[in-house]
Structures are given as C-alpha cells and as structure tokens.
Amino acid sequence: MVNPRAWLAEAIATYALVFFGPLAVILSVVAFGDGLSIEAIIMIAIGHGGAVGLMVYAFGHISGAHINPAVTIPMMITKKISIADGIGYIIFQLVGAIVAAFSLKAILPEIGAKVNFGTQGGPSELINNSVMAGLALEIIFTFFLVTVIFLTAVHKKAPAGIHGISIGGMVFLLHIVGVPLTGASMNPARTFGPALASGSWEFHWIYWVAPIIGGIIAGVIMNYIYVKKAEKEA
C-alpha cells in the first residue's frame, strides 16, 4: 500500500534542504565575497547539515526523511520500502527540490544567479577538473552518508534519538571537505532543482550517477552485514 502522506513529507523535507542549503551558498557570497573562504564553507556546511538534521527529526517518523533519491533507491533494493512508495518518494523529492530552487530564483534572482542558485559546478581545479576524481569522491561521500543513515536510522539497535544529529553531522562534515572539491552533492535532487532553475547542466550527470552508486553500495553492505543481523536478533 502506498503512503501519499509520506510522499508529501519527502517533498517538504527536500524543499527545506534545497531552499536553506543553496540560500546559505548565496548568503556566503554576500557575507564573504566570491571564492571559498573557510567562513563561507562553514556557513554552507551549516546550512545543509542543519536542514537535513532538523528535517530528519521532523519527518523521520512519517517517511523516514530520505530527502534524497540516493537514499531511497538503496531502501527499495533492501526492501525497507516498496517499489511503489520509493517511486513516489523520488518524484516528490524532485518536486520539492524544483519548487525550492524556483522559490530562491523568485526571491533572490540576481545574487542567486551569480552562484547558479547553488548548483554544483563539477570537479574543481583542486582535483584538476578530473571527472573520474569527481565521480570517485561523490561515490565515497554518498557511501558514508548512506552508511550513517542505515546504522543510525534503520538499525534496530541504534541508540534512540541520535539519527538526526548523526545524519546532519555527516552532511556537515561532507560539505566541509567536499565543497572545495566537487560542490558536495551526494543527492541528485539537491543538484537537480538548482540546475533546472539556473539552466546550468555541465557535469550534471555526475551528481546522479555517483550518489546512486555510492548509496547502493553502502545500503546493500550495511543492510546485509549489520541491519539484517540486528533484525533477526530483535
């Protein structure tokens, strides 16, 4: 049986991420100028990590607060949710991301356009603009994000109440290290909404392929080695 209330929760939670995360990117330019100062990176990391962590606490008990197709797909593969619900989740995640990005475009059209409304721009000069390095990094980043999700939000023996701060904290960490390298997506919906609003599609495919690969690898490993064992013992 499908759960439209959970789909709506995914849309709202993803809206929050794709509104507040890119808004932090935009405001970092206002506050600290062009370029990536440490202050700007911290501000961006707080915007994304805070949005994700708080939405996990707000909507986790309703939909699981995936907020990310690269989380939903491994949840479907490991049968934590049905295929029908998973498809609904992904559609509503993308809808939430699109509405959020166009909200920013309506509110801050000029300054937002300077940073393509927070769209990730592909592999940076720090990794020699290497597509392979960018792919590898986004796979690794998403692997660890989904690992934290499975072991704190899905695992039956995870300590109660730590999932939001753990997942939000991981998103914060991944932005601290990832923003200067790839823009730190780990989430196709997070990149898709701003790309649609800005018309910036260069390297866009990386932010679909790599997070989904990383998410699937993490989900399958964590589920079959750790989560299923805990379910049998519960």
From TrEMBL:
Keyword Metal-binding recorded: no
**Compartmental location:** Membrane
Membrane topology note: Multi-pass membrane protein
- Record's GO cellular component terms: plasma membrane
For molecular function, the Gene Ontology terms on record are: channel activity
Q: Where is the signal peptide?
A: none
Q: Which Gene3D superfamilies does this entry report, sorted A to Z?
A: Glycerol uptake facilitator protein
Keywords attached to this Swiss-Prot or TrEMBL record, sorted alphabetically, are:
Membrane, Transmembrane, Transmembrane helix
List residues traversing the bilayer: 12-32, 38-60, 81-104, 131-153, 165-185, 205-227
Q: What is its main location?
A: membrane
The record, for SUPFAM superfamilies, names: Aquaporin-like (SSF81338)
Sequence similarity: Belongs to the MIP/aquaporin (TC 1.A.8) family.
Which NCBIfam families does the annotation name?
A: MIP (TIGR00861)
Q: Can you say what this protein is called?
A: Aquaporin
Q: Which organism is it from?
A: marine metagenome
Its lineage reads: unclassified sequences, metagenomes, ecological metagenomes
